[in-house]
Amino acid sequence: MKNVNQFREMKVLVLGLAKSGYAATKLLHSLGAEVTVNDASPEEGNKEASALRLEGIQVICGGHPKGILDEGFELIVKNPGIPYSNSVVVDAVQKGIPVWTEIELTSRISEAPIIAITGSNGKTTTTTLLYHMLNIGGKHPLIAGNIGTASCTVAEKATEDNFIVLEVSSFQLMGTEAFRPKIAIWTNLYDAHLDYHGTSEAYAVAKSRVTEKQTQEDYFIYNEDQAELRKFAARSLATKVPFSLKGIRSAGISADDEQIYWDGEPYVKRSIIKLPGQHNLENILAATAAAILLNCDKAAIENVLSSFTGVRHRTQFVKELKGRTFYNDSKATNTLATKSALAAFDMPIVLIAGGLDRGHSFEELRLFMNNVKAVVTLGETAGKFAEFATSCGITKIIHADDVNDAVLKAYPLTDVGDIVLLSPACASWDQYPSFEARGDQFIEAVIKLS
């Protein structure tokens, strides 16, 4: 960790505990800041609040007291999930108090170069791919951010011999000031989180902060196939490294049906890649480009490409059983993600779909339902999805009580060579506490089948 003195005796308010707030509080306290924590959840059962209080840190739980900023705070570090419409945040902005998220602290203390990965989809897969490439290649990577440990906790222990592979969201990027990754990756841009950002433009601008402070000494890897990302790349001062699925490019990384190319030259054959889907090929190109820029051995990159079958709950290969292959895509909580999963397979699909009803249409999936031979529906949207499937010409439609029941009902609908795909196109909260819990039940049900 860098020797940072700027926080010594600084009055800092950490807004919201959770994982990142707790980590930020511990770090700032160790750096000599005078920290106060304000969390909206009740005091009772809040283990983090109790632990911090034992260290002599002031903790205020149960809401945001009016006038809390009158205590003279010089900095606010907020949980990324707290919106900018929050009264304390609004007040802070009006008073000119900087409002950061925890990744800004990470950038200020880290001795290790940071590789920051963002995007509407694919950032977790890209982060994981790159981490494994660097790990096998002996580059001593550390993984952090949305995918696991809070980044400032990782940065405290990192040295200049490490690389921090950091998954970052638009929520986190909004709270940055000097955040400057050595390599920034922007996988793609689609409308998302508009309830938080308000407009598509605001969401895109938040994402663009991943490259905003980069210089010519840094690298910006971006999706050249998206016009909007080309616009943001044109504004970046970093050295640009585009990736494209539309044939050979003379610069950056690209792919055709046979090969992946680096600066227009064949680099690796696509036939060795295990991870299915065009959307995952984008993730592969982005991760491979970063690994090459970091002088990762080609053998390490090939090792990962030929063995990696997916991040848990993200088009994750689960098992092959009597010629049927099961994939867990529980992370597909919207139609965009399910569309990508359906497009990944040429084989007949028995699709398990449905969940929390947010009033959305499934119409966006219509052009991707051609390979779906049967549907098993579940959750609040079961009836709505059944109607949609019927309109697509699908005649085999069965309702299931939950994911476990869905697996039992899906298997008899299959033939050798078929795919059973859990890709709900809906959030899980009508039946499960998280998409992870939903996906875990799918995996358990498939294992029981065998």
Automatic annotation (TrEMBL):
Pfam families: Mur_ligase_C (PF02875), Mur_ligase_M (PF08245), MurD-like_N (PF21799). One of its GO terms (biological process) is cell division. One of its GO terms (molecular function) is ATP binding. Its EC number is 6.3.2.9. Cell wall formation. Catalyzes the addition of glutamate to the nucleotide precursor UDP-N-acetylmuramoyl-L-alanine (UMA). Its main location: cytoplasm. GO terms for cellular component: cytoplasm. Pathway: Cell wall biogenesis; peptidoglycan biosynthesis. Residues 313-426 form the Mur ligase C-terminal domain. It is found in: Cytoplasm. Residues 117-291 form the Mur ligase central domain. This is UDP-N-acetylmuramoylalanine--D-glutamate ligase. Belongs to the MurCDEF family.
